[in-house]
């Protein structure tokens, strides 16, 4: 049997934390023009045919059957008869697969979640995505949740009927990069989507029945855009009211246009103190019932006695109940930052 399959690199932290199966439906990003993002720079976008993706599902199922994780439909393979070592000895090329460790971890964790890669699975034809989802769910009945990245522009153009069809086929959660709700900043960083598109995409995704994670990027606008970035991001999120709001602070990625603008002094960055003040402004304007999450290492601001200001939980803080608590944590971080000498970030001096 052919055990080879293709795996991408990127997935949300919460999908790593839940040991998700990474199933590549598209390669790279169809937009790939955002000035702050270096994830897919220099790489071409392509869609994978459903039969190719289903072949990957079959390969992963073959590994699971060989190890006794799911019942075997081949008499020659007794459940639990093979070990990882014997499988690698039988098929040496499997050991060089970057996805093998991911699959073994997924099997060990109970095969409960799956993530469709890469940056925008919703861009493929609806009937093809439905075909892939139904096959995935049929092959692995243990799966409880399937998630994917999705661009707001794509979601805004998809019909509600098509989105509902994808939801019925088994896609449960969408991760959408809002980054900012400010129209001027969206244009400046070449996000390729308008404020109106973002709101339409988010509200449509929720109406279709998806669980929705929206990501925003504190500090993205630097000193020039900070106030309008905070206020207009909160406005967009208040209308969308997603299930999760996830913070991903801006860090200039080497080689990107925005990194070069920062180095030239054309895009003055916020200090850690100014980042927290922007965070305070945005959180203060939020009127949502979302879970607000700081589930990424970039959300590190020291609090009292050196502990992080925020917990890095994938489930975060439930709003509005925990809003005052989060604002109190931000105040704690602000008080600590006021005692720290200011200076340029170390990466900028290199």
Task: Name its key features.
alpha/beta, globular, 42% helix, 10 strands, two-stranded antiparallel sheet, eight-stranded mixed β-sheet, 350 residues, disordered C terminus
Report the principal-axis shape.
globular
Helix and strand succession? HEEEHHHEHEHHEHHEHEHHEEHH
Q: Which structural category do the helix and sheet elements fall into?
A: alpha/beta
Count of helical stretches: 14
Largest sheet: 8 strands, mixed
The average pLDDT is 90
Q: How are the strands ordered across the major sheet?
A: 1-4-5-6-7-8-9-10
Quick structural overview:
The chain is of the alpha/beta class and about 350 residues long. It contains 14 helices and 10 strands.
How would you characterize this protein structure?
It contains 14 helices and ten strands. The chain has helices spanning 13-17, 50-66, 84-90, 100-108, 126-139, 152-157, 160-169, 183-188, 195-207, 222-240, 257-263, 272-285, 323-337, 346-349, and strands at residues 21-24, 26-27, 46-47, 113-117, 145-149, 173-179, 211-216, 244-247, 291-293, 317-318. An eight-stranded mixed sheet has the order 1-4-5-6-7-8-9-10. The chain has a two-stranded antiparallel sheet with strand order 2-3. Strand 4 (113-117), helix 5 and strand 5 form a beta-alpha-beta unit. The N and C termini lie far apart (51 Å). 42% of the residues are buried.
């Amino acid at each position: 049997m052919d055990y080879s399959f293709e795996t991408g690199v990127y997935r949300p932290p919460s999908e790593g934390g839940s040991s998700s199966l990474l199933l590549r439906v598209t390669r790279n990003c169809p937009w790939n023009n955002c000035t702050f993002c270096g994830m897919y720079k220099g790489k071409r976008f392509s869609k994978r045919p459903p039969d190719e993706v289903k072949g990957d599902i079959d390969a992963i199922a073959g590994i699971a059957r060989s190890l006794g994780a799911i019942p075997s439909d081949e008499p020659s393979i007794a459940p639990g008869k093979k070990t990882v070592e014997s499988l690698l000895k039988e098929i040496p090329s499997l050991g060089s697969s970057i996805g093998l460790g991911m699959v073994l971890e997924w099997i060990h964790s109970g095969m409960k979640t799956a993530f469709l890669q890469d940056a925008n699975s919703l861009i493929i034809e609806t009937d093809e995505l439905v075909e892939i989802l139904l096959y995935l769910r049929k092959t692995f009945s243990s799966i409880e949740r399937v998630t994917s990245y999705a661009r707001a522009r794509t979601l805004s153009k998809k019909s509600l009927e098509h989105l509902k069809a994808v939801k019925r086929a088994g896609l449960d959660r969408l991760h959408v990069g809002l980054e900012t709700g400010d129209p001027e900043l969206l244009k400046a960083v070449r996000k390729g989507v308008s404020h109106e598109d973002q709101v339409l995409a988010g509200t449509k995704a929720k109406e279709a029945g998806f669980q929705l994670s929206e990501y925003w990027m504190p500090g993205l606008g630097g000193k020039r855009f900070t106030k309008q970035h905070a206020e207009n991001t909160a406005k967009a999120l208040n209308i969308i009211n997603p299930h999760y709001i996830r913070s991903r602070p801006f860090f200039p990625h080497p080689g990107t246009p925005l990194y070069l603008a920062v180095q030239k002094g054309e895009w003055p960055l916020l200090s850690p103190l100014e980042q927290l003040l922007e965070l305070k402004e945005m959180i203060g304007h939020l009127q949502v019932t979302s879970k607000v999450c700081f589930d990424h290492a970039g959300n590190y601001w020291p609090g009292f006695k050196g502990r992080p200001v925020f917990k890095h939980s994938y489930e975060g803080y439930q709003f509005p109940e925990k809003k005052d608590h989060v604002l109190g944590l931000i105040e704690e971080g602000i008080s600590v930052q006021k005692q720290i000498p200011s200076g340029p970030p170390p990466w900028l001096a290199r």
